[in-house]
Amino acid sequence: MSEDVAIIGIGIHPFGRHDSTGMEQGAHAAREALKDAGCEWSDVQYAFGGSSAAGNADTMVSTLGLTGLPFINVANGCATGGSSLISAYNALNAGAADIVMAIGFDKHPKGAFDPDPASFGLGQWYGDTGLMLTTQFFGMKIQRYMHQYGISPSTLAKVAVKNFENGSKNPNAWRRKPMTEEEVLNSLMLSNPLTQYMFCSPGEGGVALVLARGEVAKKYTKKPVYLRSAVLRSRPFGSFEVFNSWLSPDRGDSPSVGAAAAAFKMADMCPDDIDIAQLQDTESGAEIMHMAETGFCKDGEQEDMIQSGETRLDGRLPINTDGGCLANGEPIGASGLRQVYESALQLRGDAGDHQVPKKIRTAFTHVYGAPGISACTVLSN
Amino acid sequence: MTTQVPVAPELFTWPSDQPQLIGTHFPESGVTVFPQAKACPRTASQNGERVLLPRRGTLWSWTIQGFLPKSPPYAGPETPATFKPYGVGYIQLGDQVIVESRLTTANPDDLKIGMEMELVIIPFNKDDDGNEVVTYAFAPVKK
């Protein structure tokens, strides 16, 4: 396995609702990551970062230091963090720098996203007539999946219960109150079959990672976490995505299938080799479907896996160990990097109350978002 | 009598007793898209033909929009006080295409994947000139 790229420092600004700007939360995460790596901003030779709604990441140099480094703004929807990370990975592999930072942050107003039809290549009528809601897509995708593969509403609720429980043990999470299955099932029905507490909310937060070429990593840390692969895919023909006014009856795979397979191939690993996974849980059905799309089980096996607790912190394959999007909310630019932050924290054994009890060596992350993009990574000690 | 105008002229045939959605069929790939598009998403071919889609199909998936969407982009006339949930679904029209649509029912008990559905044109809003703006929806076929 390649040890070409290592994560030597991780930093986070707690997720949730804050008075500070998104940019300030990103800069806070950057300072924390530098402190964790034991290096200075002036040691960073390249930076990639972005937000969806909180400004240009490169503006941050005015608070971090005007060192003249190349800083590239990344804007790639829900895969903004993943794309920054892939850019950092490629820059290190290309020999463009020895130390690189990837930063993601965001700050969204309360409530569902309100996208502009034209920016997604759609006619105004699509937004006018009330079809342009991501929540509808998630409801309809899991509705059909439950019909095809026998997933129960109880299993949907158990995913949320697990993630809120994990979040209650994570000091950086937003939603820290555990919930019962009944509370989740009986909360407001937002988009059948998904209730209020099965959905994550747009939120705020920031994450930064300091990455280094493998051969210099040990100078900075005794516990480097290696980034074995980082892959991004857009949608193939026949996938089912947000904001599709039509679908082909000739159904195909989601972009998560291709991204995960490529990430495993690049890392020379398979899903059975993975000890913990962070899978996009925009809502609880997404986590269930992504388990199969990323190769951790076959369609329908999730019902037994989740009912028997296999994906809990103490289970065979802990999923969303920090509480996922459900407990952390979704600041778009930061979300993908949060998963990598959490994976590194777990692999180092530094996750405290939410550390998984079993000994772990490998981790997998997966983000998914509009308009049909997925970014995956494989990490290991 | 108020004049009825479609929310977008390219979506469906109107006025008509038997309205149909208008798509584009790309003969080289066999792909049909809705609404009309210039390029085939499978082959990038630009040799598309305007095609009228079947008026009946089967329910492929569905949900109920349970809260008032943000405006913009939503342009419905409702207020938080008057809002009533509405159904949204995908309807498979033969083996041609699956289209997304509002549904005429918001009762989960009325909706089953695989059931037969039919296109209808429904009032949606009023425009500044007092015309009734209409859009397309699918309704369960009455047995």
Verbal overview:
The complex is a heterodimer of chains A (381) and B (143). Chain A has 381 residues and is an alpha/beta fold. Chain A has helices at residues 22-37, 61-64, 80-93, 124-128, 134-149, 153-168, 181-186, 214-220, 255-267, 284-293, 302-307, 324-328, 332-348; strands spanning 5-16, 46-50, 71-73, 99-107, 189-191, 194-195, 204-213, 225-234, 246-247, 276-279, 362-369, 373-380. Chain A has a single domain (5-109, 199-380), classed as 3-Layer(aba) Sandwich (Peroxisomal Thiolase, Chain A, domain 1). Chain A has a nine-stranded mixed beta sheet with strand order 3-2-4-7-1-8-12-11-10. In chain A, strands 5-6 form a two-stranded antiparallel sheet. The mean pLDDT of chain A is 96. Chain B has no helices and nine strands. In chain B, strands 5-6-7-9-8 form a five-stranded mixed beta barrel. In chain B, strands 3-2-4 form a three-stranded antiparallel beta sheet, with no helix packed on it. Chain B is globular. Chain A binds chain B through residues 111-112, 114-117, 123-133, 135-136, 139-141, 143-144, 147, 188-194, 237, 244-249, and chain B through 7-8, 10-11, 23, 31-35, 41-42, 60-67, 69-70, 72-76, 86, 88-90, 92, 95-100, 102, 108, 113, 124, 135.
Measured as a percent range, the helix fraction of chain A is 25-40%
Number of domains of chain A: 1
Kindly report the oligomeric state of this protein.
heterodimer
Could you tell me the radius of gyration of chain B in angstroms? Answer: 16 Å
Strand order of the largest sheet of chain B: 5-6-7-9-8
Overall mean confidence score, pLDDT of chain A: 96
The termini of chain B sit apart by 32 Å
The helix tally of chain A amounts to 13
Percent in helix of chain B: under 10%
Beta-strand content of chain A: 15-25%
CATH superfamily assignment of chain A? Thiolase/Chalcone synthase
Could you give a short account of the major beta sheet of chain B? 5 strands, mixed, barrel
Q: Describe the global form of chain B.
A: globular
Number of strands of chain A: 12
